């Protein structure tokens, strides 16, 4: 095990705190202000260091049960990550656009990296679920070799 997450809930089923643990079982961070959608998806939260200083905050957006993007902010409130995802009529991702802001280790200047991922599908099973997905990634005007994912779903009657 490399990581674990434990979430505590109040009597109404609302999450109150989440704690993360490293591979040795030592707690390394905790989350508060956890937002939960009516579909049971986590929509927001704040991550803290063990000394209770804010590390980051995040927000996830959903189209009912499908993730359609989100954002993250550092401890100063500056956006360091954002994404948007366009879904097809079956709820599969068609295109994802991501922006990440990091610090260059040499210059200490902000570096913005934009990535676009498009998805194409080949084949579906008897329930209409895709069996092959190809991921095409373009980042900073460089296109990487596409990744092909194949899956087989087993349905119980």
The radius of gyration over CA amounts to 19 Å
Derived from helix and strand composition plus strand pairing, the structural class reads mainly beta
Shape: globular
The succession of helices and strands, N to C, reads EEEEEEEEEEEE
Question: How many alpha or pi helices?
Answer: 0
Overall mean pLDDT: 94
Portion of residues in beta strands equals: over 45%
Euclidean distance between termini CA atoms: 33 Å
Number of strands: 12
Uncertain residue segments: none
Characterise this structure.
The protein is an all-beta fold and 157 residues long. Helix content is 0%, strand content 61%. The protein is built from no helices and 12 strands. Strands 1, 2, 3, 4, 5, 6, 7, 8, 9, 10, 11 and 12 form a 12-stranded antiparallel β-sheet that branches. Strand 2 and strand 3 form a beta hairpin. The relative contact order is 0.09.
């Amino acid at each position: 095990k490399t990581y674990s997450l434990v979430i505590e809930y109040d009597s109404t089923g609302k999450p109150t705190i989440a704690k993360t643990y490293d591979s040795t079982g030592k707690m390394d961070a905790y989350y508060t202000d956890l937002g939960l959608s009516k579909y049971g998806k986590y929509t927001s939260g704040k991550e803290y260091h063990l000394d209770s200083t804010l590390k980051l905050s995040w927000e996830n957006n959903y189209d009912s049960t499908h993730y359609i993007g989100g954002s993250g902010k550092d401890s100063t409130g500056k956006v360091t990550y954002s994404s948007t995802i366009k879904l097809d009529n079956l709820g599969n991702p068609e295109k994802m656009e991501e922006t990440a802001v990091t610090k260059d280790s040499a210059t200490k200047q902000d570096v913005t990296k934009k990535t676009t991922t498009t998805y194409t599908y080949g084949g579906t099973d008897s329930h209409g679920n895709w069996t092959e997905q190809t991921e095409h990634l373009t980042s900073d005007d460089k296109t990487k070799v596409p990744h092909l994912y194949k899956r087989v779903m087993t349905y119980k009657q």
